[in-house]
């Protein structure tokens, strides 16, 4: 069951958001919790998969709450509700999935909700590797980057490095549509784990650095910004 938190200090607006969620979700598959402040949300013992956060609240702001969420939860989906466009860059800092302007239009809300739900479908995707005659499953959400070395691939995951014989071009094809980018002839990176980049390298959230080809730099910058904005490629 997907757990959703709605944090909005205006009771009427909070109830409107909850009603929109209820109209557009199967109640048997989702659990929705309401919070009237960021402090109340952070005191909850529940871990949520998706957060709808008002940015301007009394006490902690939605941005401050999102930073605290990110410190303990890297993969939850955060969607901001705001009356001002000026917060967009702060939203990027906490890797927000999207932001919705007030007054919330239900059609726009439904569009962003549908798009957000696909993120959880992606978490179930996996690749199959064949090592010493054995088939192994690697979940795509766990892959940091993939490195090609001679005829072998090294799949760097959040828990270990898996090596096997395979072509990086074939792997690139398998990962199409999964927020990966071929940043160098020998590297494919998962955009989810990118912390920063410059003209020659990409720094991941675990502080590892991988090569970024100068010929791919402009395309990578565009793809990464699209990823942050959740625009269709």
TrEMBL record:
Record has Cytoplasm as a keyword: no
Keywords per UniProt: DNA-binding, Phosphoprotein
SMART domains named in the record: LytTR (SM00850), REC (SM00448)
Top-level taxon: Bacteria
GO MF terms, alphabetically ordered: DNA binding
Domain Response regulatory: 3-117
RNA-binding recorded as keyword: no
UniProt modified residues of type 4-aspartylphosphate: 54
Name of the molecule in the record: LytTR family DNA-binding domain-containing protein
Species for this entry: Clostridium frigoriphilum
